[in-house]
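Quick look at the format.
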Amino acid sequence: MAPTTQSLMHFSRIEVNQISNSFLDFEALSKAQLEDNELQSFQNDEKSSLVFKRVPSPVSATELICDTSTGSPRPFVPHNFRRTIFEHFHNLAHPGVAASFQLIASRYVWPNMRKTVKDWVQNCIACQRSKVHRHTKTPLGTFALPDARFSHIHVDLIGPLPSSEGKSFA
């Protein structure tokens, strides 16, 4: 038998272990789903494109309430599990906002996920330390000297600010 054929035969015998979600307690997640008011209002929202169904858990005997509109079940995540899920996926390689959102949204669902993930990624200390962002600053402008005092007036405006007496700029 040729050496390359023998090598290829070894690859065909390799067993692949299933990736587990051991970081997440599915029984506790299922129990939290039943007590979650946010899920109840989310399920009753007729404007939502999400389709919620009870799906058997892959690793326990419980059922999870999942969105099945994408073709693969995505469990609804109650508030107290969201940070754990985010940290699990984000801490793998500290991807940016879009990649972190994509990793999580392909597996789980919760309201305002994009905003939540964006806030958490932008506040990640490890990302702030290691990622260099371009800080472009425009140079200060130069002004021609006026012919006489107060013949030209320059004004700096800032805003919009919180409204005060109907005004929102200073």
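Next, a different chain entirely:
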Amino acid sequence: MGSPEKETMSVSLTQTVAHLQQLLQEVNQQLTKEK
């Protein structure tokens, strides 16, 4: 079994990536609206 610390790290990383993707989508929508 791998160390639990690495597992929690990967989980938090995936969550952060998901948040970043949402932010990017919102920014893209705002940019396309302004055009």
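The mean pLDDT is 90.

See the schema section for token definitions.
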